[in-house]
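seq as requested:
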Amino acid sequence: MKKILHLQTLALLSGVQNFSLHLLQGLSGSEYKKVMASSVHGPLVAECGKLGIKHIPIRAMKRELGLHDLYAFLQILFILKCGKYDVVHTHTSKAGLLGRLAARLAKVPLVIHTSHGMPFQEGQSRLAYKLYMFLEKLGNKWCDYVVYVNDSDRIRSLELGLIRPEQAKTIYNAIPPDLSLNLGKINETRKLPPEGEVLIGSTLRFSRQKNVLDITRAAIAACKRCSRLKFALLGEGEDLQLCRAMVQSHGLSGRILFPGWDRNIEPWLELFDAFILYSRWEAMPFSIIEAMQSGLPVIGSDIPSICELVDEETGYIVPLDDLVALEDLLVKLGEDFTQAYAKGKRGAEKIRQKSDYQTMVSAYEALYNTEVVR
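C-alpha coordinates:
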Protein backbone atom coordinates (compact mmCIF):
# COMPACT_ATOMS: atom_id res chain seq x y z
CA MET A 1 0.00 0.00 0.00
CA LYS A 2 1.37 3.41 -1.01
CA LYS A 3 1.20 6.21 1.54
CA ILE A 4 0.34 9.49 -0.18
CA LEU A 5 0.11 13.01 1.23
CA HIS A 6 -1.57 15.93 -0.50
CA LEU A 7 -0.27 19.28 0.77
CA GLN A 8 -2.45 22.39 0.56
CA THR A 9 -1.87 25.90 1.91
CA LEU A 10 -5.33 26.72 3.28
CA ALA A 11 -8.14 24.52 4.61
CA LEU A 12 -10.73 26.07 2.32
CA LEU A 13 -13.02 24.35 -0.17
CA SER A 14 -12.24 26.29 -3.32
CA GLY A 15 -11.25 24.74 -6.64
CA VAL A 16 -7.75 23.63 -5.64
CA GLN A 17 -8.87 21.85 -2.47
CA ASN A 18 -11.82 20.26 -4.23
CA PHE A 19 -9.41 18.99 -6.85
CA SER A 20 -7.45 17.10 -4.17
CA LEU A 21 -10.63 15.65 -2.73
CA HIS A 22 -11.92 14.61 -6.17
CA LEU A 23 -8.64 12.87 -6.96
CA LEU A 24 -8.21 11.16 -3.60
CA GLN A 25 -11.80 9.86 -3.78
CA GLY A 26 -10.91 8.08 -7.00
CA LEU A 27 -7.93 6.22 -5.53
CA SER A 28 -8.51 2.73 -4.17
CA GLY A 29 -8.51 2.57 -0.37
CA SER A 30 -6.88 -0.86 -0.56
CA GLU A 31 -3.95 0.50 -2.58
CA TYR A 32 -3.42 3.94 -1.05
CA LYS A 33 -3.35 5.37 2.44
CA LYS A 34 -4.63 8.90 1.82
CA VAL A 35 -3.58 11.92 3.91
CA MET A 36 -4.20 15.67 3.55
CA ALA A 37 -2.20 18.43 5.26
CA SER A 38 -3.06 22.14 5.35
CA SER A 39 -3.64 25.08 7.67
CA VAL A 40 -5.66 24.32 10.79
CA HIS A 41 -9.10 25.90 10.42
CA GLY A 42 -11.52 25.66 7.54
CA PRO A 43 -14.18 23.48 5.88
CA LEU A 44 -11.57 21.22 4.28
CA VAL A 45 -10.91 19.62 7.68
CA ALA A 46 -14.51 18.48 8.13
CA GLU A 47 -14.79 17.37 4.51
CA CYS A 48 -11.71 15.15 4.90
CA GLY A 49 -13.37 13.59 7.94
CA LYS A 50 -16.52 12.82 5.97
CA LEU A 51 -14.52 11.14 3.21
CA GLY A 52 -12.29 9.13 5.53
CA ILE A 53 -9.15 11.07 4.61
CA LYS A 54 -6.77 11.78 7.48
CA HIS A 55 -6.06 15.50 7.96
CA ILE A 56 -2.84 16.81 9.50
CA PRO A 57 -2.90 20.48 10.64
CA ILE A 58 0.06 22.76 9.91
CA ARG A 59 -0.39 25.46 12.51
CA ALA A 60 2.02 28.00 11.01
CA MET A 61 0.63 27.72 7.46
CA LYS A 62 -0.99 31.01 6.40
CA ARG A 63 -1.75 32.83 3.16
CA GLU A 64 0.40 35.85 4.07
CA LEU A 65 4.19 35.86 3.73
CA GLY A 66 6.25 36.18 6.92
CA LEU A 67 8.66 34.58 9.35
CA HIS A 68 5.95 32.05 10.21
CA ASP A 69 6.73 30.44 6.83
CA LEU A 70 10.02 29.15 8.25
CA TYR A 71 8.11 27.51 11.09
CA ALA A 72 5.60 26.08 8.59
CA PHE A 73 8.48 24.62 6.58
CA LEU A 74 9.92 22.96 9.68
CA GLN A 75 6.49 21.53 10.54
CA ILE A 76 6.13 20.10 7.03
CA LEU A 77 9.62 18.62 7.18
CA PHE A 78 8.80 16.98 10.53
CA ILE A 79 5.51 15.58 9.17
CA LEU A 80 7.22 14.10 6.11
CA LYS A 81 10.13 12.58 8.00
CA CYS A 82 7.86 10.99 10.59
CA GLY A 83 5.21 9.89 8.08
CA LYS A 84 7.52 7.99 5.72
CA TYR A 85 5.38 8.82 2.68
CA ASP A 86 5.84 7.17 -0.70
CA VAL A 87 4.37 10.14 -2.57
CA VAL A 88 4.04 13.83 -1.70
CA HIS A 89 1.71 15.80 -3.97
CA THR A 90 1.76 19.59 -3.47
CA HIS A 91 -0.68 22.30 -4.55
CA THR A 92 -0.65 26.13 -4.65
CA SER A 93 2.43 28.33 -4.75
CA LYS A 94 3.35 28.46 -1.06
CA ALA A 95 2.63 24.82 -0.19
CA GLY A 96 4.28 23.89 -3.47
CA LEU A 97 7.54 25.66 -2.69
CA LEU A 98 7.80 24.70 0.99
CA GLY A 99 6.49 21.19 0.41
CA ARG A 100 8.74 20.35 -2.51
CA LEU A 101 11.87 21.44 -0.64
CA ALA A 102 10.81 19.60 2.52
CA ALA A 103 9.99 16.45 0.54
CA ARG A 104 13.37 16.49 -1.17
CA LEU A 105 15.18 16.95 2.17
CA ALA A 106 13.05 14.19 3.73
CA LYS A 107 14.05 11.90 0.84
CA VAL A 108 10.46 11.20 -0.22
CA PRO A 109 10.71 8.75 -3.17
CA LEU A 110 8.28 10.63 -5.45
CA VAL A 111 7.39 14.34 -5.37
CA ILE A 112 4.67 15.77 -7.64
CA HIS A 113 3.34 19.30 -7.89
CA THR A 114 0.13 20.30 -9.66
CA SER A 115 0.24 23.84 -11.01
CA HIS A 116 -3.22 25.38 -10.62
CA GLY A 117 -2.18 28.52 -12.50
CA MET A 118 1.02 30.53 -12.72
CA PRO A 119 2.01 32.59 -9.64
CA PHE A 120 3.37 35.37 -11.88
CA GLN A 121 0.60 37.31 -13.62
CA GLU A 122 -0.02 40.61 -15.39
CA GLY A 123 -0.53 43.52 -13.02
CA GLN A 124 2.30 42.53 -10.67
CA SER A 125 5.34 44.73 -10.24
CA ARG A 126 8.36 43.78 -12.35
CA LEU A 127 10.21 42.72 -9.19
CA ALA A 128 7.34 40.52 -7.96
CA TYR A 129 6.90 39.00 -11.43
CA LYS A 130 10.58 38.07 -11.69
CA LEU A 131 10.70 36.80 -8.09
CA TYR A 132 7.70 34.50 -8.53
CA MET A 133 9.13 33.20 -11.79
CA PHE A 134 12.45 32.43 -10.08
CA LEU A 135 10.70 30.66 -7.18
CA GLU A 136 8.63 28.60 -9.60
CA LYS A 137 11.76 27.46 -11.42
CA LEU A 138 13.43 26.68 -8.08
CA GLY A 139 10.47 24.63 -6.86
CA ASN A 140 10.43 22.66 -10.10
CA LYS A 141 14.02 21.55 -9.42
CA TRP A 142 12.89 19.92 -6.16
CA CYS A 143 10.21 17.65 -7.63
CA ASP A 144 9.96 14.82 -10.11
CA TYR A 145 6.90 15.94 -12.06
CA VAL A 146 4.84 19.08 -12.49
CA VAL A 147 1.30 18.53 -13.72
CA TYR A 148 -0.36 21.41 -15.54
CA VAL A 149 -4.14 21.43 -15.74
CA ASN A 150 -4.05 23.03 -19.19
CA ASP A 151 -1.69 22.84 -22.15
CA SER A 152 -1.09 26.58 -22.38
CA ASP A 153 0.60 26.82 -18.95
CA ARG A 154 2.77 23.78 -19.70
CA ILE A 155 3.89 25.22 -23.03
CA ARG A 156 4.54 28.62 -21.47
CA SER A 157 6.66 27.08 -18.70
CA LEU A 158 8.73 25.20 -21.26
CA GLU A 159 9.22 28.33 -23.36
CA LEU A 160 10.37 30.28 -20.28
CA GLY A 161 12.79 27.52 -19.31
CA LEU A 162 11.11 26.91 -15.95
CA ILE A 163 11.01 23.14 -16.27
CA ARG A 164 12.57 20.24 -18.15
CA PRO A 165 10.36 18.69 -20.86
CA GLU A 166 10.42 15.24 -19.25
CA GLN A 167 9.04 16.71 -16.00
CA ALA A 168 6.07 18.51 -17.53
CA LYS A 169 2.70 16.76 -17.92
CA THR A 170 -0.79 17.95 -18.78
CA ILE A 171 -3.79 16.34 -17.06
CA TYR A 172 -7.16 18.07 -17.33
CA ASN A 173 -9.29 18.54 -14.22
CA ALA A 174 -12.52 16.55 -13.98
CA ILE A 175 -15.44 16.21 -11.59
CA PRO A 176 -16.54 13.01 -9.80
CA PRO A 177 -19.03 10.65 -11.48
CA ASP A 178 -21.90 11.35 -9.08
CA LEU A 179 -21.77 15.10 -9.73
CA SER A 180 -21.29 14.52 -13.45
CA LEU A 181 -24.37 12.28 -13.50
CA ASN A 182 -26.50 14.92 -11.75
CA LEU A 183 -25.33 17.65 -14.12
CA GLY A 184 -26.06 15.39 -17.08
CA LYS A 185 -29.65 15.04 -15.88
CA ILE A 186 -29.93 18.83 -15.70
CA ASN A 187 -28.68 19.05 -19.28
CA GLU A 188 -31.21 16.46 -20.45
CA THR A 189 -34.13 18.44 -19.02
CA ARG A 190 -32.86 21.90 -19.97
CA LYS A 191 -35.22 23.91 -22.17
CA LEU A 192 -35.11 27.27 -23.87
CA PRO A 193 -35.81 30.05 -21.34
CA PRO A 194 -39.36 31.42 -21.28
CA GLU A 195 -40.15 34.63 -23.14
CA GLY A 196 -40.02 36.66 -19.94
CA GLU A 197 -36.34 36.56 -18.99
CA VAL A 198 -32.83 35.19 -19.52
CA LEU A 199 -30.84 34.49 -16.34
CA ILE A 200 -27.05 34.69 -16.70
CA GLY A 201 -25.16 33.36 -13.69
CA SER A 202 -21.75 32.65 -12.28
CA THR A 203 -20.00 31.12 -9.29
CA LEU A 204 -16.78 32.96 -8.57
CA ARG A 205 -14.64 34.76 -6.04
CA PHE A 206 -15.20 38.52 -5.99
CA SER A 207 -11.58 39.39 -6.71
CA ARG A 208 -9.39 41.10 -9.28
CA GLN A 209 -8.52 37.75 -10.86
CA LYS A 210 -12.17 37.00 -11.60
CA ASN A 211 -12.66 40.51 -13.05
CA VAL A 212 -16.00 40.77 -11.31
CA LEU A 213 -16.10 44.57 -11.42
CA ASP A 214 -16.13 44.46 -15.22
CA ILE A 215 -18.80 41.75 -15.17
CA THR A 216 -20.94 43.96 -12.93
CA ARG A 217 -20.42 47.04 -15.10
CA ALA A 218 -21.38 45.12 -18.23
CA ALA A 219 -24.42 43.60 -16.50
CA ILE A 220 -25.64 47.04 -15.40
CA ALA A 221 -25.30 48.47 -18.91
CA ALA A 222 -26.92 45.42 -20.52
CA CYS A 223 -29.88 45.45 -18.11
CA LYS A 224 -30.59 49.06 -19.06
CA ARG A 225 -30.75 48.07 -22.73
CA CYS A 226 -32.63 44.77 -22.43
CA SER A 227 -35.49 44.24 -19.97
CA ARG A 228 -35.34 40.43 -20.33
CA LEU A 229 -31.91 40.11 -18.71
CA LYS A 230 -31.27 39.09 -15.12
CA PHE A 231 -28.02 38.09 -13.40
CA ALA A 232 -27.12 35.99 -10.35
CA LEU A 233 -23.46 36.15 -9.28
CA LEU A 234 -22.70 33.72 -6.46
CA GLY A 235 -19.65 34.03 -4.26
CA GLU A 236 -17.76 36.07 -1.72
CA GLY A 237 -14.62 38.18 -1.71
CA GLU A 238 -13.11 41.60 -1.32
CA ASP A 239 -15.05 43.21 -4.21
CA LEU A 240 -18.51 41.93 -3.24
CA GLN A 241 -19.68 45.01 -1.33
CA LEU A 242 -18.46 47.35 -4.07
CA CYS A 243 -20.37 45.34 -6.68
CA ARG A 244 -23.52 45.48 -4.57
CA ALA A 245 -23.14 49.24 -4.13
CA MET A 246 -22.68 49.72 -7.89
CA VAL A 247 -25.88 47.81 -8.63
CA GLN A 248 -27.85 49.60 -5.91
CA SER A 249 -26.76 53.00 -7.22
CA HIS A 250 -28.36 52.14 -10.58
CA GLY A 251 -31.56 50.78 -9.01
CA LEU A 252 -31.00 47.26 -10.37
CA SER A 253 -30.88 45.22 -7.14
CA GLY A 254 -33.92 43.25 -8.28
CA ARG A 255 -32.27 42.17 -11.53
CA ILE A 256 -28.61 41.73 -10.61
CA LEU A 257 -28.49 39.45 -7.58
CA PHE A 258 -25.62 38.59 -5.22
CA PRO A 259 -26.85 35.57 -3.22
CA GLY A 260 -23.48 34.93 -1.51
CA TRP A 261 -21.67 31.61 -1.53
CA ASP A 262 -23.56 28.33 -1.86
CA ARG A 263 -21.70 25.00 -2.05
CA ASN A 264 -24.82 23.34 -3.44
CA ILE A 265 -24.36 24.60 -6.97
CA GLU A 266 -26.62 22.16 -8.84
CA PRO A 267 -29.94 23.99 -8.23
CA TRP A 268 -28.35 27.23 -9.40
CA LEU A 269 -26.99 25.69 -12.59
CA GLU A 270 -30.48 24.37 -13.26
CA LEU A 271 -31.87 27.92 -12.91
CA PHE A 272 -29.21 29.61 -15.05
CA ASP A 273 -29.65 29.97 -18.80
CA ALA A 274 -26.00 30.91 -19.47
CA PHE A 275 -22.76 31.05 -17.47
CA ILE A 276 -20.18 33.84 -17.42
CA LEU A 277 -16.53 33.78 -16.31
CA TYR A 278 -14.64 36.84 -17.56
CA SER A 279 -11.43 36.20 -15.63
CA ARG A 280 -8.06 37.88 -16.11
CA TRP A 281 -6.32 34.54 -15.58
CA GLU A 282 -7.34 30.96 -14.80
CA ALA A 283 -5.89 27.46 -14.70
CA MET A 284 -8.73 25.01 -15.41
CA PRO A 285 -11.89 26.32 -13.72
CA PHE A 286 -14.21 23.67 -12.29
CA SER A 287 -17.02 26.22 -12.58
CA ILE A 288 -16.85 26.12 -16.38
CA ILE A 289 -16.59 22.32 -16.44
CA GLU A 290 -19.70 22.07 -14.23
CA ALA A 291 -21.59 24.68 -16.24
CA MET A 292 -20.85 22.99 -19.56
CA GLN A 293 -21.81 19.54 -18.27
CA SER A 294 -25.17 21.00 -17.21
CA GLY A 295 -25.77 22.26 -20.75
CA LEU A 296 -25.06 25.96 -20.24
CA PRO A 297 -23.45 28.07 -22.95
CA VAL A 298 -20.38 29.79 -21.48
CA ILE A 299 -19.34 33.42 -21.90
CA GLY A 300 -15.60 33.51 -21.27
CA SER A 301 -12.65 35.87 -21.57
CA ASP A 302 -10.10 35.25 -24.31
CA ILE A 303 -7.41 33.83 -22.04
CA PRO A 304 -5.67 30.60 -23.13
CA SER A 305 -7.03 28.26 -20.46
CA ILE A 306 -10.66 29.24 -21.06
CA CYS A 307 -10.15 29.01 -24.82
CA GLU A 308 -9.05 25.39 -24.34
CA LEU A 309 -12.57 24.63 -23.05
CA VAL A 310 -14.85 27.10 -24.84
CA ASP A 311 -15.00 27.90 -28.54
CA GLU A 312 -17.51 29.39 -30.98
CA GLU A 313 -19.33 26.05 -31.19
CA THR A 314 -19.94 25.81 -27.43
CA GLY A 315 -20.09 29.39 -26.20
CA TYR A 316 -18.74 32.89 -26.60
CA ILE A 317 -15.21 34.26 -26.18
CA VAL A 318 -14.92 38.00 -25.47
CA PRO A 319 -11.63 39.96 -25.43
CA LEU A 320 -10.51 41.14 -22.01
CA ASP A 321 -11.19 44.81 -21.21
CA ASP A 322 -13.67 45.15 -24.09
CA LEU A 323 -16.76 46.05 -22.10
CA VAL A 324 -18.61 47.27 -25.19
CA ALA A 325 -18.27 43.83 -26.80
CA LEU A 326 -19.31 42.10 -23.57
CA GLU A 327 -22.32 44.37 -23.10
CA ASP A 328 -23.42 43.91 -26.72
CA LEU A 329 -23.18 40.11 -26.39
CA LEU A 330 -25.25 40.09 -23.19
CA VAL A 331 -27.94 42.19 -24.87
CA LYS A 332 -27.91 39.87 -27.90
CA LEU A 333 -28.48 36.86 -25.63
CA GLY A 334 -31.35 38.64 -23.94
CA GLU A 335 -33.03 39.38 -27.25
CA ASP A 336 -32.55 35.96 -28.89
CA PHE A 337 -31.32 32.91 -26.96
CA THR A 338 -31.92 30.21 -29.59
CA GLN A 339 -28.32 30.03 -30.83
CA ALA A 340 -26.93 30.11 -27.28
CA TYR A 341 -29.14 27.20 -26.25
CA ALA A 342 -27.73 25.08 -29.09
CA LYS A 343 -24.18 26.01 -28.09
CA GLY A 344 -24.86 24.81 -24.55
CA LYS A 345 -26.04 21.44 -25.80
CA ARG A 346 -22.92 21.01 -27.95
CA GLY A 347 -20.74 22.08 -25.03
CA ALA A 348 -22.17 19.36 -22.80
CA GLU A 349 -21.03 16.72 -25.30
CA LYS A 350 -17.58 18.24 -25.81
CA ILE A 351 -16.68 18.70 -22.14
CA ARG A 352 -17.42 15.07 -21.27
CA GLN A 353 -14.84 14.00 -23.83
CA LYS A 354 -12.21 16.57 -22.81
CA SER A 355 -12.66 16.38 -19.04
CA ASP A 356 -13.18 12.75 -18.04
CA TYR A 357 -12.88 11.70 -14.41
CA GLN A 358 -11.49 8.20 -14.89
CA THR A 359 -8.96 9.49 -17.42
CA MET A 360 -7.78 12.05 -14.85
CA VAL A 361 -7.49 9.51 -12.02
CA SER A 362 -5.72 6.95 -14.21
CA ALA A 363 -3.20 9.55 -15.40
CA TYR A 364 -2.31 10.52 -11.83
CA GLU A 365 -2.14 6.88 -10.75
CA ALA A 366 0.35 6.25 -13.55
CA LEU A 367 2.53 9.02 -12.12
CA TYR A 368 2.12 7.77 -8.54
CA ASN A 369 3.44 4.37 -9.65
CA THR A 370 6.47 5.76 -11.46
CA GLU A 371 9.87 4.58 -10.28
CA VAL A 372 12.17 7.61 -10.23
CA VAL A 373 15.95 7.41 -10.31
CA ARG A 374 17.60 10.62 -9.11
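The domain at 2-174+356-368 is CATH 3.40.50.2000 (Rossmann fold).
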